[in-house]
Amino acid sequence: MRPERSSGSSMGGSAPSISGDAKELASEAIDRAKGLANRQVSETQEKSARQIGRLAEALHHTSDELRDSIAAPYVEKAASVLDRLSGSVRDASVRDAVHATERFARREPLLFLGGAFTLGLLAARLLKGSGQGSRQDQGGPADREEAYGETGRSQWP
């Protein structure tokens, strides 16, 4: 009779193979995630550049309408800044954008914080606005008058 091998000795040879396979799968998953993230960033970057460009066009148009006004040069200057920003957003890599933002934040911390605060308010407003539509879709009252009626008492149990 031949002696039987223990299960531990047969696993010893395949452990490096399993480890290598796991590393390879993890590497592939990371590469796919990076590719997906890069595509999403590129799409968002292009969309943002288009929106900034549209805003710049609107400001150029407004500046033309205000040509005799005191505000016209300021509106035109803002439109020019947005034109340059649109091009920068379209052409810059993510790393470049992060570095430029960091440099700006170091140079102009109050302006950076004010801009971040303003963007936060705008984002909150957009989210709040999109939440209003979903609340009405759920069958809830669309406004205060529906909820309280003419008497001021709630119609809800």
Short note summarizing the structure:
By secondary structure, the protein is mainly alpha-helical.
Question: Layout of helices and strands, plus pairs?
Answer:
Blueprint lengths: L6 H59 L6 H20 L2 H14 L1 H29 L6 H5 L9
Helix pairs in contact: 1-2, 3-4
Which features does this protein show?
disordered N terminus; elongated; 157 residues
What proportion of the residues form beta strands (DSSP E)? Answer: under 5%
Mean pLDDT level: 77
Distance between the termini: 83 Å
Low-confidence stretches: 2-10
Largest pleated sheet: none
Descriptive account of the structure:
The protein is an all-alpha fold and 157 residues long. Among the domains are: 62 residues; 39 residues, no CATH class. Helices cover 81% and strands 0% of the residues. Helix 3 crosses helix 4. The N terminus is likely disordered.
